[in-house]
Amino acid sequence: MHPKEIQKLFHFYISINFTKHNVPTLLILFSSFPPTMATSVSKNVTVIFTVLLISFFLTVESQKFSRNLSQRSLGLRKEKLSHFRFYFHDIVSGPNATAIRIVEATRTNRTAATGFGDITMIDNPLTIGPERTSRLVGRAQGIYTSASLNEMGLLMAMNYVFVEGKYNGSTLSIVGRNPVMSPVREMPVIGGSGLLRFARGYAEARTHTFNMNNGDAVVEFNVYVFHY
Length: 228
Description:
This protein is α+β, with helices and mostly antiparallel strands. The chain is built from 4 helices and 9 strands; from the N terminus they run ααααβββββββββ.
């Protein structure tokens, strides 16, 4: 076979199989040429094959789903532990309520006492002190729902959105169980944003006051977070 014919055949085979990322087949084809035929193949074919092979591996590398990174490549240095203390105002009454029930489940004899299935949307103020007029440091935005048939147990999913000092614009995400009648409740911190990226830790909740007449509550939160 003439070298030019071999070159055409080789290019044709590459055009079919290379798009399928079938490198082993190409290697078999290349190695199957008889010695006398292989020596007649021009250097251009070898160069083209090498370029295409490199291109293939670069394409595969660019299509990887994940890759390892160093912490410093994202500007992450030493991990530190921070403590946040504030008061959570759950205001369910009046024209300026910040906790609105958006789903009220059908009541049965079993669910009447706990409100099982009710869902409340919140945008509650977080303040430096227990008074509602105290300095605002953030908002608690999210939902809580009654998730227990036998006790007042809430499932809480919310973001603490801070508006104070260097943490202005940063957030912490909380998802956990809140048995509201317990003196101290613990919920995990599952993440954060801004200066609190990669946050992990826990939040302790203690009821400061609860108004039996209108249902409003003030809860003290102490949040302990590892972050960079």
